[in-house]
Amino acid sequence: MIPAWVRGAFRLALREGRHSVRRVGPYMVSITLGVTALVAIQSFRADVARSIEREAEVLMGANVRLSADTPWSDTVLALRDSLEREGARGARVTSVASMVLAPSSDVVRLVQVRALDDGYPFYGTVRTTPEGVWGAHLEPGRALVDPAILPQLEVGIGDSIVVGAATLVIAGTVDGLPTDLGFQTAVGPRIHVSHQALEQARLLGFGSLARYELFFEVPSSADRITLDERYDDALSEVGVGFTLAEQQARRLSRGVDFLGRFLALVGLGALLLGGVGVASAIHVYVQEKRSAVAVLRCLGAPQRTTFLIYLLQAVGLGVLGSAAGVVAGMSLQRLLPVVLAGILPVPVTPELSLTSAATGLGIGVWVAFVFALLPLLRIRDVTPLQALRADVEPATTQPWLGGFVVLVLAGSVTALCVLEAPEPDIGLGFAGGLAVVIGALWLVARGLVGLTRRLIPRRGPYPVRQGISNLFRPRNQTVAVTLALGLGTFVIALLLEVEGSVRRDLTLSFGDGQPNLLLFDIQPDQVEGVRALLPEAARAGAQVSPLVSARIAGINGETPDELRNRERGPERPEGWALRREYRNSYRTDLGGGEELVAGRWWDDTPGTEDDTRVDPGALPGLSLEEGVAESLGVGLGDTLTWNVSGVEIPSVVTSLRRVDWERLEPNFFAILEPGSLDDAPQTVIMLARVPDESARSAVQRDLVRAFPNVSALDVSRVQAAIESVLDLVRQALAFLGGFAALAGVVVLVGTMATSRHQRANEGALLRTLGARRGQVRAVFLSEYVALGTIATLAGVLLAGAAAGVLLPSVFDVRYVPSIGLLGLVWLGVTGLTVLVGLAGTRKLLDRPPLPVLREAGGEA
Amino acid sequence: MLIVAEGLGKTYTSGGRPLRVLDSVDLEIARESVVAIVGPSGSGKTTLLGLLAGLDAPSSGRVVIDGQDLAGLTEDGRAEFRARRIGFVFQTFHLLPTMTALENVMVPLELQGSFHGARERAAELLDRVGLSDRTDHYPAQLSGGEQQRVALARAFSNRPAILFADEPTGNLDQATGAGIVEMLETLNREESTTLVLVTHDLSLAERADRVVALAGGRLSSDRPGRGSDARGAGSQAPAGREPAAQASPEAGG
User: Fold this and answer.
1) Per-residue pLDDT for A238 more than 70?
2) pLDDT at A855
3) Max CA distance (Å), chain B
């Protein structure tokens, strides 16, 4: 049974609701915007996860995949035979990068050559041009190519291409391979051939960077689980990856989910901004309703009833605003797969997600509720006596109640951040950052009030003095407006700064002065010949690094097996670091992107953090990258033994390096003292800068003729591919950033309205005293300019500070503030503030003063 | 006695200094009587009305209505008491601008939780004040006199034992004001209500059973009005009681 007072409050809330929809409704748009973004992203995340899981086996083309960086060992081949005897179909896929020449056009490109056995992919259909030619690549002397190959090599179907030592005819193009993830082909187009053709091409020579995969069709899930249990660990011991289709699908959807959750944080930002908008709108509404509340109290409404009436209205409007957001979000959900098509691994079909809708509605209503609570507490301060006399001082709410509401608000915001963030830590960081920003803005606002009071110019035009003194008049809205304006500016400026810096960093890694041609698989005796093919200017600067493949054979005398069997703890090396095949190098000097942190370099250069000199004795010295040293659990003075093509080479750790992996330079986990590996089997990589694009093409063409085993990668093409992916991410960010900005404008309008009543009275009074409308406008103008300038400046500066913290720690990017952009944001938002403010007062100035003053006198 | 006020005093703090607005007022008001409270601006009339209606707590003394000491009730308890027993008419009408005339009259009933028959009761009262054709109009669409008639209907909707009226004709022209007074008296008689009204208008005050005058926050006189001749009921106070010492001249009203 609902108590009568609650039912009464419900009825009155509904009655009054018509009015509140008109007065507060427009500001609920800010909640709508936030909920729209959240629902769209959440439903979209569900769509992606579902689509990926549903397509798991099609995405792999099989049910099980084995993968390795080395040719198959006899153990694995025996495993294949036994599986095939049990009825499981198997197929090999071997991929290697190679230069390909088109004799008809004389064009050379680095492409992926992919050899496939018959039958693969076991699931899904391959689309080709001409139709139905999938399988032609298995015929001798024939190949199928990705469509991108044709324009790159300037050839057509039916033309020949030279792949290593083999010449193949292009039988058609592969337009859709179900195993392709949308963004993969952007990096390197492929040529599909048979394993015989790959052998003929002789691309799998020593040191070539090939990838070996073995796929199986195992339709029964029970069989798959048995396989997983039987082989996963055993295979990983010998450096072979074992993956089930469903595991791959889960990994993929986690990746997309992570991105989705980052986007959700932007959406949440928009929603919280919406909360600020609701708070200011309710604040104005409560001010307007004071006398109505006093009358209701006179007529016998208890405090709780009047409070409940307006709380119900706020929540009701929150429900309406959020419901509109849910509907809009579901429409947007259909748009996102189109916008993000390029970075999605599978085609995504939108489905109605009731969970997302319910969550969005719940979060929206809750945000409206908690943000409305604080201004609504003022309802409790209204005494019935105010209906009889206007000059009654309102009672003050119990301070503990206000404190409690603030706690609920802070707790809710933190919980929402943690709920929506990719990881709880990120959510907590987001909430903490928000708290710091709000705290800083609050300090700025208080400082502004205090400073203007002290520094108000005694002379100067009257409107300016009056306008500025409005900032600290009793019951001013300086703090509220500064918070809302500053927070909005902060979000917009921060998004712009992060995006701009990430983009600049990318240009720096690939841009002017950086090497742009990577030559690899060079045999040591070919180095000078290859160098001679480079243009004169590029020869001296070309960086040459030998590459020696090696595995770890022991640490301080213990074998990898013994190390793996150690108790779990800080001393036990991590599995990946023990198992991986290392590509080590040796050289005399430290690289440009390296910093020696501990020990001494060969030439006695001391480490920056620890300069201990380790004497390796008769053994060669070893310099390890600090991260891998930590994973291996080794430090200065430890002995690492390498297995290089069956020969054991012990070495002593004499230094640790910090490596900037972002720089396009040959970087290595392990560098040995020169002299120790001279005789080991090795290949060489060369990095050169050839600024002219046609010169780069010429080098590649000459190279494939003179040294068919050497591959070249034009880095600017990689840069273009990465940029196209980043562009899509940026589009998504900009799209949601737009929501935040729009919510910011609604907040701006809301906060400007908070002092509208006061301004109306003031304007009317000034005009009664003889002020012209222009003078009254000048008063408002100077107030808005002062407020807008300082609040947005605070937002911009805080965004700069936040970017300075976020970029190095989260994005690993150095932050250089873009002063021009920040200045533009500052001026832009200030201008908008003044415009919105003046637009709001225009109507006030058009009304004759008397009715305004009379209304202020005693309207219920 | 329906209303008993003993040693009623109220002190506000203004600019950090205490300001005594009402000082030791004793007053008894009989059931179904009409009492007018008069006095110059700042004499404490409105404060006295507010205290008698339980809108505020006195600094000293107490108010007992129908045996219920208001000091024994919480803020919300006093609100519920008002909802059941008290009606109000204000100088500036104080209709809720967002509700129609009918809805305004229904408010006190809905606050009490008596939803059943509320609409009929409100419609009947609007009919009695001559506004049966204006029920769906909003306050802004009504003249001042019509607004005050809606306010009268609202004041009587919860069948109050006591009606407090604060300058009910203060915002109206003479003719309209006279009409409102007629209507107030009629309703008051028909509903058997005790009426306490604060007014500047001496001719209106004279129509009461009893006229209580305040000056400087103290009772300065308490005498029968012309209404007592007609009704034969009312004042318990001796006629022509003289005022006690004057309170501070800056006391507010």
Assistant:
1) yes
2) 61
3) 53
Cβ atoms of B79 and A307 closer than 8 Å: no
- Residue to test with chain B: of A296, A388, A397, most B Cβ within 10 A: A388
Mean pLDDT on A97-105:
86
Cα(A361)–Cα(B208) distance, rounded to whole angstroms? 59
Nearest-angstrom CA–CA distance, A818 and A816: 6
Give the containing element (helix H, strand E) for B36: strand B34-38
The per-residue pLDDT for range A751-783, each reduced to its tens digit, is 666 666 677 777 777 777 777 888 888 888 888
B55 touches chain A (CB under 8 A): yes
Give tens-digit pLDDT for A385-395.
888 876 666 66
- pLDDT recorded at residue A395: 67
A397 in B contact zone (CB under 8 Å): no
CA angle in degrees (0–180, nearest 5) for A8-A9-A11? 65
This prediction has a pTM of 0.70
In sequence order, the β-bridge partners of residue A98 are A111
Q: Could you read off the pLDDT of A265-293 as tens digits, one per residue?
A: 777 877 887 888 788 788 878 888 888 89
- Residue of A678, A676, A660 whose CA lies nearest to A668: A660
Task: Over range A296-314, report the average pLDDT.
Answer: 90
On whether any CB of chain A is under 8 Å from the CB of B119, the answer is: no
Q: Which amino acid is at B84?
A: R
Instruction: Check: CB of residue A97 under 8 Å from CB of residue A711.
Output: yes
CB atoms within 10 A of CB A312: 19
Q: Which residues from B are below 8 Å from A388, CB to CB? A: 46, 49-50, 55, 90, 166
Q: A347, A55 in Cβ contact below 8 A?
A: no
Please give the full DSSP string across A26-72, using - where no structure is assigned: HHHHHHHHHHHHHHHHHHHHHHHHHHHHHTHHHHHTSSEEEEESSPP
- Residue in A547, A457, A489 with CA at minimum distance from that of residue A745: A489
B-contacting residues in A 356-385 (Cβ below 8 Å) = 383-385
pLDDT of the residue at B8: 94
Give the confidence band of A342 by pLDDT, cuts at 50, 70, 90. Answer: low
What is the spatial distance between Cα A823 and Cα A716, in angstroms, rounded to a whole number? Answer: 33
Name the band, by pLDDT with cuts 50, 70 and 90, for residue A171: very high
Contact A688, A517 (CB under 8 A): yes
Residue B235 has pLDDT above 80, yes or no: no
- A153: tokens are 């090599």
Are the beta carbons of B158 and A389 separated by less than 8 Å? no
Residue B154: its chain A contacts at CB < 8 A? 299
Q: Residue B144 CB: number of other CB atoms within 10 A?
A: 15
Residues B226, B229, B234: CA angle, nearest 5 degrees: 85
pLDDT of residue A581: 79
Q: How far is B73 from chain A (nearest CA, A)?
A: 12
- Asked whether B28 and B55 are in contact (CB, 8 A), the reply is no
- What is the token pair recorded at A462? 């009257």
The encoded tokens of residue B137 equal: 């109009």
Q: How far apart are CA A230 and CA B186, in angstroms?
A: 99
Question: Is residue B252 scored above 60 in pLDDT?
Answer: no
Is there a contact between A300 and B46 if contact means CB atoms under 8 Å apart? no
Report pLDDT for B212.
95
Instruction: Calculate how close chain B gets to A373, using CA atoms only, in Å.
Output: 20
**ipTM metric:** 0.81
Interface test with A, best of B37, B56, B92 (most A CBs within 10 A): B92
Distances (CA, A) of B115 to A4, A88, A566, B121: 9, 77, 79, 10
pLDDT(A199) > 50: yes
Query: Residue length, chain A?
Result: 860
Residue of A nearest to B57 (CA): A385
Residue type, position A623, single letter: S
Q: Taking Cα atoms as reference points, which of A540, A513, A510 lies closest to residue A691?
A: A513
